Amino acid sequence: MTISFSVVNAKGGVGKTTTAVNIAAMAAALPRPDGKPRHVLICDLDAQMNATHQLGFMDLEPNQTLAGHVTREADLESIIIHDAATIEGLDLLPSHYQLSYIDEAVLITGTWLRRKLKALRSQYDWIIFDCPVYLGALTRNALGASSGLLIPTQAEKHSVTGLPHLISRARQTFEETDCVQPWAYILITMFDSRNSIERNWAQQVRKQYEGVVLQTAIRRNTDLSKSATGGLPIVVYDEYCAGYLDYREATIELLQLIEATTPKLHLVKPEAVAEGVS
Predict the structure, then answer these.
(1) Taken in order 88, 77, 49, 132, is the CA torsion positive or negative?
(2) Cα(128)–Cα(44) distance, rounded to whole angstroms?
């Protein structure tokens, strides 16, 4: 059974792409319970093409990427890059900055991406969508092709207070694209446990979204920035740094949760986290 989910947050700078890339890479590096290798496809749907760059592809032409294939006749399999960043089983559907200029008419129903990936789904255990910050047509199509959400968030006011709106929009899209029993998890990123304000916000998030926030938090770690700049996931870059350990634990936790049980999205409370934390 293929599990597909969108990594999304309407606020930039929360480690969204870093999370998508490193969760995908780590999942491909970890074997399935039956000992067989796991096959993962990461789809870069962002015109900033950060996921494509973080996997080492800097100079692709538009027709080698999604930007040249958002059409009714598109064959997405022809542009998938296999074993990205030398990780066996990690495939990439790459992006290009010209994705900003596509004709969005084919995306309007929210099901184009789901239909185009239908023939490929059986090849993968996980399909992960790295979504744009803008909650537009491409994000709508990602949600339409997903069975759930992973929401990276910093433990700070502006990131946290946007969660209810994001979850509400996602729930609406899931309903409109006939997604059955979608699930959601929240991952705290760029966390500094020495900072009392961040500790308080993290506590508030865990209380407000009890059972939905992953126990693992991704600590601030310069090696994650260095690996992203170098075009390598942390699993390849440095297996001894805190970033590697955190994303490994987060991926294992996510594997245990979504490959075993799939909580419904309505378990996520829509009410805003209290703003009075200081």
Answers:
(1) negative
(2) 9
Strands ordered across the beta sheet of 126-130: 90-93, 40-44, 126-130, 3-7, 148-154, 183-189
Structure tokens at 59: 């100079």
Q: CA 163, CA 212: separation in Å to the nearest integer? A: 12
The amino acid that residue 54 corresponds to is Q
The two three-digit tokens of residue 232, written as one number: 């390598």
Name the residue with tokens 């999304």: 8
Q: Give, to the nearest 10 degrees, the angle between helix 163-176 and helix 137-144.
A: 60
| E strand or H helix that includes residue 207 | helix 196-208
Digit-coded pLDDT (tens) for 211-261: 899 999 999 999 999 999 999 999 999 999 999 999 999 999 999 888 876
Give the global pTM: 0.93
Contact yes or no for 187/216 (Cβ under 8 A):
yes
HSE-CB at 16 with a 13 A cutoff on CA atoms is: 24
Model pLDDT for residues 121-166, shown as the tens digit of each residue: 999 999 999 999 988 999 999 999 999 999 999 999 988 888 998 9
Burial 143-178 (b: 16+ CB within 10 A, else e): bbbbbbbbbbbbbbeebbebbbebbebbbebbeebe
